[in-house]
Amino acid sequence: MFVRLSAAVAALSLLTGAALAQGAKPTDPQIAHIAYTAGVIDITAAKQAISKAINKDVKAFAEDMVRDHEAVNKQALDLVKKLKVTPEDNDTSKTLSKQAADKLAELAKLSGAAYDKAYVANEVAYHKAVNGALETLLIPSASNAELKSLLQTGLKIFQGHQLHAEHVAAELK
Amino acid sequence: MRTGCSLAVVTALMLGAMAVPAHAATIQVVMENLVVSPAEVSAKVGDTVEWINKDVFAHTATARNGDFDITMPPKKTVTSVLTKAGTVEYYCRYHPNMKAVLKIAP
Fold it and tell me: By three-state DSSP, how is residue B36 classified?
């Protein structure tokens, strides 16, 4: 499971590595799109968890994810509107969405405690990967100060989610 | 003379009564951009804490020792009165990287 677990994670790491190697930095419209997409992916995964999870802590965690990621994405939308930036779809966003859809389908086949465990494990890995991409690529590449600042707040909140997910994962064992 | 005396007593009592609430202070703890400030604050039993959440995210102030668990909706201020002395480490259950300490004197 752990091999497949990190499909989206691998995509993020690949993207980070590839972009850095080429010295090709994503543009602000692309960064906005990637960050928003990463949020939508986690909301979709959380909604699946709210309907499938059996453990109450896992369900509560999923509800926290929906609430926080929707709040971040609302801020992101408000900001791009204010800056008159149109988020631009790109290969990273596409890869992320594709991998996430595969992961969702894979999780859909599980149920009960096995599902809970797999969902939380993926949340830990996914937040870790997003945080890595934020730290090493997205934040340093962002040129607009307000976008950079929103990404920095995003990083703190996702680091919080990662810790929270790790706590939930530890309790499931 | 007697009247003057009792007046003085009454005045003293009134002043005393007014002075009591002054002992119970109000302490503000702000949560903004996922940071709790001040990171460490001293207070006394009976003091009121104003938990001010300036973020668009919900936060909690959850004592590790179980003494309190306050939930703050986004952009809201919640107050609570400190009832127990001790040095209490607390954190946000939703974002456990948010941590701070409340030193409550008896």
Answer: strand
> What residue ranges of chain A have pLDDT lower than 50?
1-5, 17-22
pLDDT in tens, A70-93: 999 999 999 999 999 999 999 999
Smallest CA–CA separation between A55 and chain B, in Å? 17
Which own/partner pairs from A126-130 qualify as long-range (CB within 8 Å, at least 24 positions apart)? A126/A8, A126/A9, A126/A41, A126/A42, A126/A45, A127/A42, A127/A158, A127/A159, A127/A161, A127/A162, A127/A165, A128/A9, A128/A162, A129/A6, A129/A8, A129/A9, A129/A12, A129/A13, A130/A12, A130/A38, A130/A158
Q: With beta carbons under 8 A apart, name residues in chain A contacting B99.
A: none
B61-82: pLDDT as tens digits? 999 999 999 999 999 999 999 9
**% pLDDT > 90, chain B:** 77
CATH H superfamily, domain B24-105: Cupredoxins -  blue copper proteins (2.60.40.420)
Model-level pTM? 0.82
Tell whether A48 lies on the interface with B, counting CB pairs under 8 A: no
DSSP symbol at B55: S
pLDDT for position A161: 97
Give contacts of A71 with chain B, Cβ < 8 Å.
Answer: 56-57, 74
Distance CA A42, CA A48 (A): 10
Domains of chain B, residue spans: 24-105
Cβ burial of A103 (10 Å; 0-12, 13-18, 19+) is buried
Domain boundaries, chain A: 2-16+27-172
Task: Identify the CATH number of the domain defined by range A2-16+27-172.
Answer: 1.20.1260.10
